Backbone:
């Protein structure tokens, strides 16, 4: 049985969707939820949506928020991870949003905020294509046209050394 205090929630906040995964200390997924992101909404509404996606994932894991150790969010754009501030995220139209503090107040658990690409690279290093390597470098490739955007290519490419 998993000790509930060894449970964290990882959140990917994207321009088209937000997804929360509840994981235990062995990185086993216990619950998840995904909802669309409406980038036209004001930050207060998107933060309420983020809280909802986290709470739904925790409920699907059969847990309560008080049993969660922390929530970690990969947010787009320029982020001050020490203060939990998203300075600028053009794809969701955010500027100077105190995401960490606002979500911490709502969820009543510690909230960590980091740039989504950095979080993705760490995930690949620990659990993905970079597992077992000493070092890993990641890059986000994004292509766009005036009317249509393609999805970013965040696949890690590495060799074990």
Residues:
């Amino acid at each position: 049985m998993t000790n509930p205090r060894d449970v964290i929630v990882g959140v990917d906040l994207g321009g088209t969707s937000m997804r929360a995964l509840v994981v235990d200390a062995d990185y086993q997924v216990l619950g998840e939820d995904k909802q669309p992101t409406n980038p036209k909404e004001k930050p207060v509404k998107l933060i309420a949506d983020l809280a909802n996606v986290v709470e739904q994932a925790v409920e699907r894991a059969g847990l309560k928020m008080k049993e969660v150790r922390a929530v970690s969010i990969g947010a787009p754009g320029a982020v001050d991870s020490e203060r939990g501030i998203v300075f600028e995220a053009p794809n969701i139209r955010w500027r100077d949003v105190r995401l960490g503090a606002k979500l911490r107040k709502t969820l009543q658990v510690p909230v960590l905020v980091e740039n989504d690409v950095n979080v993705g690279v760490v995930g690949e290093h620990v659990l993905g294509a970079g597992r077992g390597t000493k070092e890993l470098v990641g890059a986000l490739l994004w292509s766009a046209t005036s009317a249509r955007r393609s999805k970013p290519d965040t696949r890690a490419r590495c060799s074990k050394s």
Observations:
- Residues 5 and 69 are 5 Å apart (CA to CA).
- The radius of gyration is 16 Å.
